[in-house]
Amino acid sequence: MRKFKTFYLVAAALLVLTVVATTSSQMTSQKQSTPAQAASAWDFNATIIEACSCPMFCQCYFNAKPASHHGHAGGGNEHFCKFNNAFKVNKGQSGSVKLDGAKFWVSGDLGGDFSKGQMDWAVLTFDPSVTKEQREAIGRILGHVYPVKWNSFSVAKDADMEWKAEARNAYARLDGGKVAEVVLRHPEPSAMADGPIVIKNLKYFGVPRNDGFIMMPNEVEAYRLGDKAFEYKGTNGFMITIDMNSRDVSGK
């Protein structure tokens, strides 16, 4: 998936996950601005187990369109980047709402040409343990993580989410893999020495800080629901820890 430097913040998550407004009957007009100001401040640190249909390493981070899938991934001459991004929040807060430990999943396709910041589709799925308040906060924050436009963006029914990351492998599953699945492995033959293979100084979408892309080709990456289901094996995969806060995007 690709970085973006100048796209306007028009995230579909903001269209489907709105903040519940506090009515005037619940507070005096003198106090109304205080909670609003507090709620606008947030910080977000999360690790993503990510995979897509592109060959390793995904060229979308360096180009305005995905790789051609001629002879690869069953795509003919099409250009697409069908992805699964499994999030676990390490530490986060939005106003008084703690986000630590929240798990959610974004599946989708960047489409064939995103030079103007227009992507094809995405589906957001929450683990059932994520509260209503956390969902609202995550929806707002995702609009800054992915500052792009979507032809279609929807929120799916909740699904139990497994998420585990280790030094040499990582996996994430929705509903035991019935809804979606990602399995990543450390590419042992490609490493010069012990330890992960890491790409540094590469931006992740709208996020100003990350600890590097830890290279792990996928054994499988799949989204298995509906007419947009897909499954790929041996294509791009990595883990990344991202960090951003409301101060990073103030004034944008």
Characterise the protein shown here.
- By secondary structure, the chain is mainly beta.
- It has one domain.
- 12% of the residues lie in helices and 36% in strands.
- Strands 1, 2, 3, 4, 5, 6, 10, 11, 12 and 15 form a 10-stranded mixed sheet that branches.
- A hairpin with a 3-residue loop joins strand 7 and strand 8.
- The radius of gyration is 18 Å and the shape is globular.
- The N terminus is likely disordered.
List the keywords:
252 residues; mainly beta; ten-stranded mixed β-sheet; five-stranded antiparallel β-sheet; 4 helices; 15 strands; disordered N terminus
Ordered list of secondary-structure elements with their pairings:
Elements: H1 13-16, H2 33-40, E1 42-52, E2 82-94, E3 97-98, E4 103-109, E5 118-126, H3 132-145, E6 149-155, E7 161-165, E8 169-174, E9 180-185, E10 198-199, E11 209-210, E12 213-215, E13 218-223, E14 230-232, E15 237-245, H4 246-249
Parallel strand pairs: 5-6
Antiparallel strand pairs: 1-2, 1-15, 2-3, 2-4, 4-5, 7-8, 8-9, 9-13, 10-12, 11-15, 12-15, 13-14
Secondary structure tally: strands: 15
Q: How much helical structure, as a percent, in the residues? A: 10-25%
SSE order, as H and E? HHEEEEEHEEEEEEEEEEH
Class based on secondary structure composition and strand pairing: mainly beta
How much of the sequence is in beta strands? 35-45%
What does the overall shape look like?
globular
Low-confidence stretches: 2-34
- Taken together, the total number of domains comes to 1
From the alpha carbons, calculate the radius of gyration and give it in angstroms.
18 Å
**Cα end-to-end separation:** 22 Å
